[in-house]
Amino acid sequence: MTKNNDTISKRKFMEELYRYKRGSVTRRHFLGVTGLGTATAVLAGAMPALRPRRAFAQGDIGDRVVLATWPNYHDPANFDAFTEATGAHVQVNVFGSNEEMLAKLQAGGSGWDVFVPTNYTITTYVGEDLIEALDSSLMPNYDPAAYDPRFSDAGSVDGTLYAVPKNWGTTGYAVNTNHLDGREMTTWKDFWDITMDAYSGRTMVHDYQLTTIGNALKYFGYSFNSVDPNELAEAEKLLLDAKPHLFAISSDYQPPMLNGDAWLTMCWTGDGKQLNTDMPEIAYVLGKEGGEIWSDYYAVPKGAPHRDAAYALINFLLAPEVNAKEVLAHGYPSADANTNALLPEELLNDPILYPAQELLDALEFGAAATLTDPNRAELLARFKSA
Amino acid sequence: MRIYAIFVYLFLYIPIGIIALFSFNAGRHASQLQGLSTQWYGKALSNPFVMDALETSLIVAFVSAICASVFGTMAAVALQGIRGPIRVVFDLLIYVAVMIPGIVIGIATLIGLVTLFDQLNPLVASLWPTDAPPKFSMGYGSLIAAHTLFTMSLVIIIIRARLAGMDRALTEASSDLYATPLGTFRQVTLPLILPAILAGFLLSFTFSFDDFIIAFFVAGSETTLPIYVFSSIRRGVTPEINAIGTMVLAVSLVLLITAQLLLRNGKSRT
Amino acid sequence: MTQRGRNLVLLAPAGAWFLVMLVVPLTVVLIFSFGERGAAGGYVPAFTLDQYANLPARWTAFKNTLILAPVGTLAALLIAYPLAYFLAVRADPKWKTLLLVLVIVPFWTSILIRSYAWIFILGGRGIPALLDWIGIGGVRLINTPFSVLVGIAYGYLPLMVFPIFVNLDRLDKRLLEASSDLGAPPWRTFLQVTLPMSLPGVATGCLLVFILLMGEFLIPALLGGGKVFFVGNALVDLFLQSRNWAFGSAVAATLVAIMLVTVTAYMRLIRRLGAQREDVSLM
């Protein structure tokens, strides 16, 4: 590595990042030029990784903090380390859909200190006055310039910071290839077709309207975010036809995939990575037609009972050294260049975390309208109770 | 017949056995045994959220069982002497309270109280002299109130059944002998219905301690033990949950056996 | 204070409780059921019958509940009755209390944890693996109506055993002896003496289990894989996912109405049967 690379300016870094995202340079080139590819202890030492300690030392943050997040989305060892460093225990509540989180906050008195909303929901939380504006001075580890704006933009609404990026990822499907008998799975059409055929009784779909309806819409080539009644009607018919062939409707799909009860499931990046690590015969596939690309954020709900602890926890988890451990444990990519600098190269080249550009290009971010669209909510509820 | 009974007991206890077995698992997973250890017991006992949830559950169960037994007994005794529309209304209310599924009680309490609080809170705030008026919200109060609704109705039914079997001549004789109503209650009625009150209290406590559905809706930011268990199950069960379940079971067994022994001793002494 | 005044004071706490915790919430549910869903969820005041018109969208959930609640009650009864009979009539009196306690003990671990044990037993590595080992392959148990039924029968067994046991235990054993002394074969004794005498217990147990099952949500959620849907699951979904308080209220109100009708009809029936039996015994 040359000196020149070491001192790459922020501006140059962003330029390179955009070039990379446009696909005009390879990942290897990008990582090389920006110096991010050298996940070395030298770099780790130079990074602001040691800052968190100072932040924790100040003041007593209480003995607990409550986190509402998603399944398989953290390294439990990091929570233990947080407790050790601050004395605050972390209670993790897990949710399977953004709707569930919203419902809990709308009913009042959730008791959460930190929650993890997805990009497209944040404007709704702001509109409903359920989310706190964040004070970035309380999160010294948050280095906005280090983040790919595509995955951090949604955290600010009208210039106010409400949420800081956690991880980004895609929604594809995980398939146990042992039962494929040579068939190729590349599209959402394949997903639904094999569900109603050779994989009958072995498929799981999310208990989550955005992805379950969105990926049914993809069967017909419609937008993942469609709220068009006719398109939704077609998706509903597909879902109802497929329902008798499903193993379960649940966002907690790892246990049945691992014990062999389920062979195919809608799946998020990191779960795909975890499943693939535990059982190499489980492959992660992104539908060629497209589907969802998303970015999750840390946010603080209005009236959080342990606000200081909330900031301390977010700040702790954003520290690149901690964040890198998180990524290694859960397999969801981070949009933070500082974190990626600490990750091994093979992970940064992993096709599950960083799919090929042409697959990424077809993906859509969720749209705010799908969260609150009453027809989509009712469609999923009808599908489940059918 | 005996073989059949053995089969039913196996049916009842194999799942319990599995829970207890996996509580000693050395590994992280609740369904793959990887050596034996008691580490999860230590983890559960040192986890403040588990202890907090246990405390919340015990407080809620105890307070609601007390409320249910006291108010339920009062109502049952009073209803003995009441005829007419009031009695009809109460009979109907008790019937509805017992018959409505827990989930509807939970939902109705949630939206009912949230709506009520939305009206009350601004009112209280406008009348309150300082800047920090008290705010009604879901929590201990709503949990205890919702549990008591159901268990109080149970207590009333149990005690009325007992009172119905009671000889009315006894209370009449007592008042003929110029005992005050309170005296009659303490000397005659109470001893007769005490077993029913105790049974009602225990039933109320058990119901409240094990209830998940009502608490799920009305607990607000409080976490009872069943709510804690539910959210743990969703984030992938570790043997910590099995350890909690096994401990609750063991403690209840010890309490039960102690009570049995005390009762037996008490009997042999008299 | 007059007797009447005293009684009213004694009734006041219970009355207040019923008012705030039962009458007000149920009224709110009823009012909401004629309203509309807010833009981001919740409730907006309105007067419309739309929510009730939309009820057929939950037809399957109602159907599942109305089928599986009675079937589950029956399953629990079929398993519980012989056990209660054994405990009350055949078991060694020395062990009776212990055996009875052993029936309730599982009830003290949360139903959640117990259901989780069943996920393991009925899942791919449990019974199906055993069956596969003895040569019966391809059996799937978890996430089927069957697994939900097992969970129900398991979860509600003690509630069924108890009332029946209490009834049978009170039964005068001399009646049974008299019957067999008069030359009646055991099955006739059972059909003509034991069974009729235990009917009140059976009626109580069935009522208890049926009421709880009509609102069941956990067992189908855990053992049904989100596929075997009860009204309870539909309600949880409407309030905790799609945030449609208006429609949720309509479903809840309908469930309460169904329960009022079925339970009242059931109690009438039981009362009539009871009355008939008394006539018989009087003759």
TrEMBL record, chain A:
Its main location: periplasm. Keywords: Periplasm, Signal, Transport. Transmembrane segments: none annotated. It holds the Pfam family SBP_bac_8. It is found in: Periplasm. InterPro entries: SBP, Sperm_putr-bd, TAT_signal. PROSITE patterns: TAT (PS51318). CDD domains: PBP2_PotD_PotF_like. This is Spermidine/putrescine ABC transporter substrate-binding protein. It comes from Albidovulum salinarum. The lineage of its organism: Bacteria, Pseudomonadati, Pseudomonadota, Alphaproteobacteria, Rhodobacterales.
From TrEMBL, chain B:
InterPro entries: Bact_Polyamine_Transport, MetI-like, MetI-like_sf. The chain crosses the membrane at residues 7-26, 58-80, 92-117, 137-159, 188-207, 213-231, 243-263. The keyword Cell membrane applies. Signal peptide: none annotated. Residues 54-259 form the ABC transmembrane type-1 domain. Keywords: Cell membrane, Membrane, Transmembrane, Transmembrane helix, Transport. The keyword Membrane applies. Belongs to the binding-protein-dependent transport system permease family. CysTW subfamily. This is ABC transporter permease. The lineage of its organism: Bacteria, Pseudomonadati, Pseudomonadota, Alphaproteobacteria, Rhodobacterales.
Automatic annotation (TrEMBL), chain C:
It is a multi-pass membrane protein. PROSITE patterns: ABC_TM1 (PS50928). The chain crosses the membrane at residues 7-34, 66-87, 99-121, 141-166, 202-225, 245-267. It is found in: Cell membrane. InterPro entries: MetI-like, MetI-like_sf. Keywords: Cell membrane, Membrane, Transmembrane, Transmembrane helix, Transport. Residues 62-268 form the ABC transmembrane type-1 domain. Belongs to the binding-protein-dependent transport system permease family. CysTW subfamily. This is ABC transporter permease. It comes from Defluviimonas salinarum. The lineage of its organism: Bacteria, Pseudomonadati, Pseudomonadota, Alphaproteobacteria, Rhodobacterales.
